[in-house]
Amino acid sequence: MLPRSTSNDSFLVIRLSSLGDVLLTTPALRCLRKTYPQSHIDVIVRERYVELLRGNPNISSVIPLPEPADRKTIRNVAETMESRYDTVIDLHTGFRSTYLRRLLKPERALIYHKRRLVRWLKVRLKLDLYGDEFSVPLAYLKCLQPLNVKDDNLGMEWQGALLQKDQFLEKAKLAYPSEVPTIALCPGASFASKRWPVENWCSLAAELLKENFNLWIIGDNSDKTAGDQIRSVNPEHINNFCGLLSFAQSGAALSLCNLAITHDAGPSHMAAAVKTPLVAIFGSTVLQFGFRPFRIPHRIAEVNVTCRPCSHLGFDRCPKDHFRCMKDITSEHVLQLVKDLLSDISQ
């Protein structure tokens, strides 16, 4: 049995990466704070992701894990934390988080269950033993049940992004609000098998412009080439912000949009965290892995092909060399999902 928690306990939450996974912790962090309003709650993330939690009122402090985040770095950080925390909550459960947790030797440790075997069976044998659809943010909350933390039935949050609206508008040289509705196009994802072909994005952009939408392309520097290609459809009415914005400024931009179109990737959770409805395009991955947009109006674009899912992360190319999971999703289908979603949220 775990030791009983008190209102004066101190907590360390570990979720080192990545973009979407860190934002998906925000419901659990909020509910933990509601249960322990007087406690000290710290979160440790890799240095590049600190910005995602900056300004979150449910956190006492965000601790950066410096790069290269190797054993030596983790040991050094652990030495500064010795005996500081009563409870360590590992929402990462990877090599680095496990090593850090064991170095800290807390009185109490809670560990998020990733259901690795069930995921492996789904990928390798196409055997679905998930039962009810798995949800990563709900699994984070379940990890906190021994602390009597209850789900408040609210969504994600990203206060730091909402505070960056003026900075975004100044950098983008835009006036707001606009009389013309704006849609964010987010063509990026870490792996090629999770990215819709650029020519499909271009076709979709052309159709959206016919519907009189402003289009903002949002992504990091690796998405700039794709963004330039999409913008070439109509440079006068499409803005490409890829590589120009910080995480928080990108979140601010998304918060000003009427809708976002993303992949199964970080930008989908960025949009959800700032309460922007979205259409998410799923290719080599599936909803059972737990990354459905969380408690935000959305639609999913996907096709059923027998080789899905081929990975829980993605590949640099389609293992079958046909890429039907993405190529068979047409721009007309995504456009219809956009129209349906906008119609629903306007009612």
UniProtKB/TrEMBL annotation:
Q: Does the keyword Glycosyltransferase apply?
A: yes
Question: Which one GO biological process term can you cite for this protein?
Answer: lipopolysaccharide core region biosynthetic process
Q: Which GO terms describe its molecular function?
A: ADP-heptose-lipopolysaccharide heptosyltransferase activity
What InterPro entries does this protein's entry cite? Answer: Glyco_trans_9 (IPR002201), LPS_LOS_Heptosyltrfase (IPR051199)
Which SUPFAM superfamilies would you find in this protein's record? UDP-Glycosyltransferase/glycogen phosphorylase (SSF53756)
What Gene Ontology cellular-component terms does the record carry? Answer: cytosol
Its keywords, alphabetically, are: Glycosyltransferase, Transferase
Keyword presence, Protein biosynthesis: no
Taxonomic superkingdom: Bacteria
UniProt-recorded name of the protein: Lipopolysaccharide heptosyltransferase II
